[in-house]
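B., you asked whether I could sanity-check this one before it goes into the benchmark set. Here's the sequence:
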Amino acid sequence: TVFRGDLQNAAAMVHLPDSIAVRLEYTNERLTLSVKDDGGATAQQSVPASLDGDRFRIAISHKYLKQVSTRASGDQVKIGMTSESGPMLFTSDGPIQYGVMPMFVQW
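And here's what the prediction gave me:
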């Protein structure tokens, strides 16, 4: 679970014009978003988050993360997943849920 405003700001800050995937990694009560482009440029932002389950790292489309963070309602966004290669489910206080498939990237 992460605050929607934090997720929205972090998604905006890690955008690089030539990057497609954003990497999400949860460690030490923080969700870290990072991107790399083909030219070697990187951007990273970390926000407070809580987790029920194991640490994870997964990559998804930056476009979809930005859509989820701006269209979700309420103060918090819950990120659900069963594995690092399976679909993710983003939910918030509203009736809309977002399913997002992960992207395979080199870490």
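One thing to flag: Helices lie at 4-13, 62-71. Otherwise nothing jumped out at me.
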